[in-house]
Every structure is written in structure tokens, then in C-alpha cells.
């Protein structure tokens, strides 16, 4: 009978799923583990950093929901999370390019209608077209029939809200265009019920790592996971089915080599797309290749601007930009930055929101086809574009100072991530690719030799930290169960 201390396990990646897998294995007596992390830090797409005296999150930010949310269950009694302190307003604070704001009573109703259409799975299922066609048709129908059948000005405003909502949809499902979503793909994600915006009380999402380590709530019970992690270790070869013995060989870019009984790969599907042909030996089975090639990883980037003081009132939780096609021609005034299909990157900078973790910071998002290109811009160009937008839309109502700090995410261009988070596309459905195929382990010598975890391997909670953690625990449990069955 094999003793647990003899079983060698390599985990590739020290993000949420890798830490989850490692801590679960340690708790179950599997101590001979090594976590190889390509970056110079742990956390993966959790990246909490100090910014102007406070901790902000460049990656994962909120605990999304409560019921059946593994993170919420772990921390709910530890005084670590809290609801947002922002006004519980169901709508957005919309601004027009002439510096005015439309009637908020009307835009709140339009926004609520858009949300209802988005969430109406039953009606969407009856449409044969893609999600964009369904949403546009159903939204316009409900606006015209249910609310404003004869008011032409409001109908025009509803089109501006529709255009904004397109960008909101590709924040939730980070495709380059919402035409890539089908009426079924959008509903694969199953959100947890409860508050979707639970924050970390100014301490950052990195707090969950200390909870997984058992450092919180009792530091005396901390698991020795830190001793198992080696940073700056980029894996470039996994030899998983050898004829000589049943060991898996892991090679790194620095020339180091490891031998293991099991390897848990937790890198993003974007990284897998980039490296699978040259990393895995022998080649992966066709079903796994199909999943890697067709499960999409989108890119959404954050822009955090710090100001010398809070210039927006507490009643304003966001500054969201509404503009028509004609209005967008004014972007010719601002010529700096990437343009794709004749569209400036500023069209994909659609909102800035206030955040609880820093009183003087606004958080903006860039998505769509220019998102990765914006990563290549210098900070000065991004600040210039962001301030152009803020002053054009809100400068008549507020005296907006120059920011005195900027932080940006660059998930797309980082070779260790290649994107922000997974979504489900129509192409993925057509290719019959699935998260379950991505998660299926490689069996060699009658054992799970290479296992796969990470948010993209979760069938219903992809794109979330909780989904990533669940998959890490899942693959650790797969190894635990294997040895229980073969004891």
C-alpha cells in the first residue's frame, strides 16, 4: 500500500484554484506537494495591491452571491466581507456628451427593462437568432409597448441605453462583440443567489488566500502551503504517459525538472491555447484539444484613477456614458490610441464607478476588440483618454481635477494569463466543447496523471474566484478518492 508521504504531487499555478488544491491535499495528509508559479507572486487573477494608502483589486473584486457560494460560506462568520456602501440604486448614473444627464426616473426604468430582458431565459429560448438579435428585438418591443409608446425623445434615449447595455453584456461575457453570444450560451452561467457585490472591507480579495491557508481566523493553525510554493517557475513541458515508468515529468524554462505521481494544471485556458501543442508529451486527446481551442477566454481590463480628492457626490455611484452614433464622430477630436474597425478605444470605455476600498478612486473598464490594444498604451495616453471622456460627459456638472495616480490591469498581454475570464460563446456550443471536457483528467497507467482546474473548467461558475476554488478542491478530492479506492 502506497503511503501518502510517498505520493508526489505538482500543482502548476498558485492562483485561487492552485492554492485551494494544495491546502485540501495538505489537510488530507498529502504533504509531498510542490506548487510551481510562473509569476513573481501568488494569487493569479486575484491581485490586491496598495494604491494611495488603500488596498485595491486589479483582478477579482467582489464575492458574487451568497447561496451555494463556497467563499461566502467560508467567510460569512469572520467579519471579512460587507455589502457595498454605495446607494442601493437599481439604475445607473448616465451622462450625455453635452454634459447633461437624462431624467434618471426614465433611465432607471429603461435599465430595469434591459435587466429583465437579459434575465428572461424562457422568452430568449424561443428566438432562433443570436442573443444580440433577441435582446434588441425584445427590449425595443417592451420599451415601446409597456412604457413609452408615443414619446419619440424617450425612444431615442432608449436606443442610447441599448448601446450602453451592449458594452455591459460584454463585461459579463467578455466577447469582442455580443453577436458572439447565443440565446443559450448567455444562460449557462448560474449565479449564486444573494448580494452580488460583497466587498472585502478594504483588505482586498487576497484575504481569501489567508482563509484557505487557515491563517484566518487562527494563525496558529496555518497550513504550511507557503513552504510548498516556488515562484518564477514557468513550466514548459509535461511528459505524462511514459513507457518507462508511471511518473509524470515536469520541466521548467530555467532548466529545472520535477518528477511526480500527479500534476494538477491550473493555468488559464488562454495559456493552454498558447502552449498545449508544445507543452504536453504525448499530444493531448482530440476531445481535450477541442475544448482548449473552443472554450473562449475574453479580456476585460480595469483602469483605476486616483484623484487628490473626491469630486463626485455620494449620491453618484457611477458615471456611465450614453451617446449616439452621431455623437461618436466627436471622437475625432481625440486621436490618441487604438482604433479597430473605425472605432476608437474610447467607445469601449463605457463606465467609471466609485469603489468602497478607496474613497478617491474611480474604476473604469475597457472591453471589446480594443481591450488588449489599450494594454500597450503608456499611462499618459490612458489618463488623457479617460479624462477626455469624464470631462466631456460630466465636466459641466463637476469640477474634475487631474488624477494623481493610475493603476491598470494587463491580463491579455501577460503570457501567464492571456485574458481575464471565461465565457460561453455560440462557437463553443457549435464545436460541442465544454468545461467538463476541459476538466477531464489525463489517465496514464490507470491513474489520473494530469488533472485540470481553474475557473474555465467549472461548468456553471466560470469567470469567478469561487468557481476557480471549487475546481481546485475538486481535483484535490479526485486524487484523495483515487487512493481511498486503491488502499
Automatic annotation (TrEMBL):
One of its GO terms (molecular function) is polyamine oxidase activity. It comes from the Eukaryota. Signal peptide: none annotated. Residues 17-480 form the Amine oxidase domain. InterPro entries: Amino_oxidase, FAD/NAD-bd_sf, Flavin_monoamine_oxidase. It holds the Pfam family Amino_oxidase. This is Spermine oxidase.
Amino acid at each position: 500500500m502506497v503511503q501518502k508521504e510517498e505520493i508526489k504531487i505538482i500543482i502548476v499555478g498558485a492562483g485561487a484554484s492552485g492554492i485551494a488544491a494544495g491546502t485540501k491535499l495538505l489537510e488530507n495528509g498529502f504533504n509531498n506537494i510542490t506548487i510551481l508559479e510562473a509569476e513573481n507572486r501568488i494569487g493569479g487573477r486575484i491581485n490586491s495591491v496598495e494604491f494611495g494608502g488603500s488596498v485595491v483589486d486589479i483582478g477579482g473584486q467582489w464575492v458574487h452571491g451568497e447561496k451555494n457560494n463556497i467563499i461566502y460560506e467560508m467567510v460569512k462568520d469572520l467579519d471579512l466581507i460587507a455589502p457595498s456602501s454605495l446607494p442601493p440604486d437599481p439604475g445607473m448614473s448616465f451622462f450625455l456628451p453635452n454634459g447633461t444627464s437624462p431624467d434618471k426616473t426614465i433611465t432607471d426604468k429603461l435599465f430595469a427593462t434591459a435587466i429583465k430582458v437579459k434575465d428572461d431565459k424562457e422568452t430568449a429560448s424561443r428566438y432562433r437568432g443570436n442573443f444580440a438579435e433577441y435582446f434588441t428585438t425584445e427590449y425595443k418591443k417592451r420599451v415601446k409597448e409597456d412604457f413609452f409608446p408615443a414619446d419619440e425623445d424617450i425612444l431615442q434615449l432608449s436606443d442610447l441605453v441599448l448601446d450602453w447595455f451592449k458594452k455591459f453584456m460584454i463585461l459579463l461575457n467578455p466577447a469582442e462583440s455580443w453577436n458572439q453570444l447565443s440565446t443559450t450560451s448567455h444562460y449557462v452561467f448560474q449565479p449564486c443567489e444573494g448580494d452580488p457585490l460583497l466587498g472585502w472591507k478594504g483588505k482586498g480579495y487576497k484575504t481569501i488566500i489567508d482563509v484557505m491557508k487557515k491563517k484566518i481566523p487562527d494563525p496558529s493553525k496555518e497550513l504550511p502551503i507557503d513552504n510548498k510554493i516556488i515562484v518564477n517557475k514557468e513550466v514548459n513541458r509535461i511528459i505524462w504517459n511514459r513507457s518507462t515508468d508511471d511518473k509524470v515529468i515536469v520541466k521548467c524554462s530555467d532548466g529545472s525538472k520535477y518528477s511526480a505521481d500527479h500534476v494538477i494544471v491550473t493555468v488559464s485556458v488562454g495559456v493552454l491555447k498558447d502552449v498545449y501543442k508544445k507543452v504536453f508529451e504525448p499530444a493531448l486527446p482530440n476531445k481535450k484539444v477541442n475544448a482548449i481551442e473552443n472554450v473562449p477566454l475574453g479580456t476585460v481590463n480595469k483602469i483605476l484613477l486616483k484623484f487628490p480628492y473626491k469630486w463626485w457626490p455620494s449620491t453618484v455611484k457611477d458615471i456611465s456614458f450614453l451617446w449616439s452614433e452621431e455623437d461618436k464622430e466627436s471622437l475625432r477630436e481625440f486621436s490618441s490610441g487604438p482604433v479597430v474597425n473605425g472605432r476608437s478605444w474610447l467607445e469601449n470605455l463605457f463606465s467609471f464607478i466609485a469603489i468602497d476600498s478607496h474613497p478617491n478612486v474611480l474604476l473604469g473598464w475597457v472591453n471589446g476588440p480594443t481591450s488588449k490594444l489599450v494594454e500597450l498604451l503608456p499611462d499618459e495616453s490612458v489618463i488623457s483618454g479617460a479624462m477626455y471622456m469624464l470631462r466631456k460627459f460630466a465636466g459641466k456638472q463637476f469640477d474634475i481635477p487631474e488624477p494623481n495616480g493610475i493603476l491598470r490591469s494587463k491580463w491579455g498581454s501577460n503570457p501567464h494569463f492571456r485574458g481575464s475570464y471565461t465565457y460561453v460563446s455560440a462557437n463553443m456550443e457549435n464545436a460541442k466543447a465544454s468545461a467538463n471536457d476541459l476538466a477531464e483528467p489525463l489517465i496514464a497507467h490507470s491513474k489520473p496523471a494530469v488533472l485540470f482546474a481553474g475557473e474555465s473548467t467549472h461548468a456553471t461558475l466560470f469567470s469567478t474566484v469561487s468557481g476557480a476554488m471549487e475546481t481546485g478542491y475538486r481535483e484535490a478530492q479526485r486524487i484523495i478518492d483515487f487512493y481511498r479506492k486503491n488502499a
